[in-house]
Amino acid sequence: MNIFSAAQLYEADKITTEKQGIASIDLMERAATQIFNWLHQRMQGAQVPIHIFCGIGNNGGDGLALGRLLIESGYNVTMYVANFTDKRSKCFLINYDRVKNVTKKWPVLMTCEADFPEIHQDDIIVDALFGIGLNRPPEGWVKALIQYLNNEKAFKLAIDIPSGLGANEAIMDTDAVIKANHTLTFQTPKLSFFLPETGKFVPYFEALDIGLDPEYLMTTPPLARMVIKPMAQTFYKQREKYAHKGMFGHALLVGGSKGKVGAMVLATKAALRSGAGLATALVPGAALNILQTSVPEAMVITDTGDDFLQTCAHSIKTPSIGIGPGMGLNEVTVKGFLRLLSETNSPMVIDADAITILATNSKAMKDVPSGSICTPHVGELKRLVGEWTDDYDKLAKVKAFSKEHKVGVVIKGANTMTVFGDDIFVNTTGNPGMATAGSGDVLTGIITGLLAQGYDPQVAAMFGVYLHGSAGNIVTASQGFEALMASDIIANLGAAFIELFRKEEAPPQEAQE
């Protein structure tokens, strides 16, 4: 599923009306009908009071059309118009006139705080105040209205986007954004739904198909792409019957230091669980017994240092190196890592302390092999690309960094994003339980294992993130968020591969009379 900018969606609307020979008001009716169907399916005629708050633009027109359809089906609806200016869109005016054909209960015109209605906590609020075209923050009594609605305990449903939130712009005023319980967006989700600063206003959403031109949606380069199950299925490499372990690559994991050997245990296990034919861990001498005991399937080579890595030297020929978990920042370790960089041509997965070393030795970035993948958490990302003013500035900095150094960057978070140049891929698996120690080390191992098997670096990053999140979801389905540990993710990677091709169960058919 593609994610488009506000400008692209306006263009899609225009092309759709031209190619399908319809008017904008007809497209609006489609959208309102889809929202009505969603509500009607769930409410089944229940007489719960529905309060629809409309602006005077096209989003308000959607709200008026929805209100009319609900009234025609016998629902208890009251519509309100935030009458803050004399300027109204054409489609708003058409739908305003259509309301009078179905009810004598005209929309309530609000002009000040005294007009705010009383709302019961069991009622439903529909937000149709502002759409994706908002170019300045709500002010005065309109801002007060948003705050009033936010303070109400009633269920809040936003049409297309919560009012006050931009589709692909930073929030102008965090105190003037509807805190929706659910959002019904049109055709495709917006980028703001997936970023930490803006996504909190969209905890749940569904994209409703309103029939926008499919050719435009398929051929226009999007702002970002969502990695969903059908897309992840295309990443998978089918194994041949007569394959042997040598065909699935050799993953080298480099890291560990006194007190942080567990990170390497997790990364090495994850590399094997993701399908690498062989895995070797390069660790300090003191970690030998721990690795051999914890991961008997792996080979272990020790560095000259006992408590920390010194030379990072090895003689293994491999297309896949994952480095950084538990590595530490000892001065000798830093020199060893920088030496390894200068001697390596294969793409690397660079994580944890290895990212911090690169951030403090910027000249070393020229030695990072093209196609390598950096997997920083928020703090490490700031060291790598610098501070940012908002999430969109962060994305701009990451894209610039990726293009300059020809590397991929995995921005870990609730909606992990993989960035390769101008291409942004938004992951759709994972949950809050994965915010736990060692989860990032597991991800490093998974991506390294996929690289070893010959997956393209960009695919390895996207697929690795998807499988990582899917395994986490499988864990929490039975254990909940709090009980999840990083080792549980590894243990459920096999189930994540199976889930990738599990067919959705069809709902039971009703008995025929």
Secondary structure layout plus pairing:
Layout: E1 2-3, H1 6-20, H2 24-43, E2 50-54, H3 58-72, E3 77-82, H4 90-99, E4 108-110, E5 124-128, H5 140-151, E6 155-159, E7 182-186, H6 196-199, E8 205-208, H7 214-219, E9 224-227, H8 229-235, E10 250-254, H9 261-273, E11 278-283, H10 288-294, E12 299-302, E13 320-323, H11 331-343, E14 348-350, H12 352-360, E15 373-374, H13 378-385, H14 391-405, E16 408-411, E17 417-420, E18 423-427, H15 439-452, H16 457-479, H17 486-491, H18 493-500
Parallel strand pairs: 2-3, 2-5, 3-4, 5-6, 6-7, 7-8, 9-18, 10-11, 10-13, 11-12, 13-14, 14-15, 15-16
Antiparallel strand pairs: 1-9, 16-17, 17-18
Helix pairs in contact: 2-3, 3-4, 9-15, 12-13, 15-16, 16-18
Can you give me a brief rundown of this structure?
The protein contains 18 helices and 18 strands.
Find the count of extended strands (DSSP E, 2+ residues). Answer: 18
Q: Would you tell me the overall average pLDDT?
A: 95
The gyration radius over C-alpha positions equals 27 Å
- Report how far the terminal alpha carbons are from each other: 40 Å
The number of helical runs is 18
List the strand order in the largest sheet: 1-9-18-17-16-15-14-13-10-11-12
Strand percentage lies at 5-15%
Sheet having the most strands: 11 strands, mixed
SS-derived structural category: alpha/beta
Poorly predicted runs are 508-513
Shape, please?
Answer: elongated
